[in-house]
Amino acid sequence: TRSTRPQRLLNAVRKHATRGDPQSVISAIDHFCRHSEWAMNIGDEKGSILDSVVSELNPEKVLELGTYCGYSTVRIARLLPPGARLITLEFNADYAAIARQVIAWAGLEDRVQLVEGASEDWIPRMKEHFGIETFDFVFLDHWKDRYLPDTKLMEDCGLLRKGTVLLADNVICPGVPDYLQYVRNSLSYKSCYFKSHLEYTKAEDGLEKSVFLG
Ligand SMILES: COCc1ccccc1-c1cc(O)c2[nH]cnc(=O)c2c1
Ligand SMILES: [Mg+2]
């Protein structure tokens, strides 16, 4: 049977990246997506913005919504101190299977917990199942129609605290108008837009950074 694009992306990581070297995994995926097949990783341009937000914040507890092949998981986890924890939720079992292997190739499995399932099922279980009180940083990169309901669900579950930072991918392309309107107009958030480009293309896209004010 034909291989899938995520499987071909993993093959490129195994062929070109060094085990235990997260930067080489990132570079191998970016090279594959620029020169072989486009894939919906955040990419190197928006990825540098993600890096700067994470480095400035130094979060202990991180939630990622939407793992895909684990590219942004590796980008974030490589910047975390060994005691920090990143929980990443992926609905698609095939993507999750590839992501586990990409994360392991980068040598970051000790900091990452990949959970398969729907965000709306797992967000209410973060406290009792993972012993999480609140998150310091949340990266939203999953289904665009889930950004707003999942943000409201995290608020209702008490998973956000004064100063928690939400960073949302694709706020222009494909776009998340309802989420943008909410975080930009709610008195509970201080929001700002980082203009960039859709991964590996010249199309406009950007990241929205929103600080929860409690
Ligand atoms: C399957 O659509 C791929 C695509 C096609 C055209 C434009 C944008 C996207 C796109 C880009 C992304 O960074 C994404 N990140 C997370 N979940 C997505 O569905 C997603 C989609
Ligand atoms: Mg994205």
Quick structural gist:
This protein has 214 residues and is α/β, with parallel strands linked by helices.
Low-pLDDT regions:
none
Bound molecules: the ligand COCc1ccccc1-c1cc(O)c2[nH]cnc(=O)c2c1, magnesium ion
End-to-end CA span: 51 Å
Can you list the strand order of the major beta sheet? 3-2-1-4-5-7-6
Radius of gyration, Cα only, in angstroms?
A: 16 Å
User: How would you describe the shape?
Assistant: globular
Number of strands: 7
Structural class: alpha/beta
Topology order in helix (H) and strand (E) letters: HHHEHEHEHHEHEHHEE
Instruction: Give average pLDDT, whole number.
Output: 98
Instruction: Tell me the fraction of residues in β-strands, as a range.
Output: 15-25%
What this model shows, in words?
There is one protein chain. This protein is α/β, with parallel strands linked by helices and 214 residues long. It has ten helices and seven strands. It has helices at 5-16, 22-35, 43-57, 71-77, 93-105, 119-122, 126-130, 147-156, 171-175, 177-185; strands at residues 61-65, 85-90, 112-116, 135-140, 160-168, 189-197, 204-212. Strand 1 (61-65), helix 4 (71-77) and strand 2 form a beta-alpha-beta unit. Helix 1 packs across helix 2 (22-35), helix 1 (5-16) runs parallel beside helix 5 and helix 3 (43-57) runs parallel beside helix 4 (71-77). The protein is globular and about 50 Å long. The mean pLDDT is 98. The ligand COCc1ccccc1-c1cc(O)c2[nH]cnc(=O)c2c1 binds at residues 40, 66, 141-142, 169-170, 173-174, 198-199.
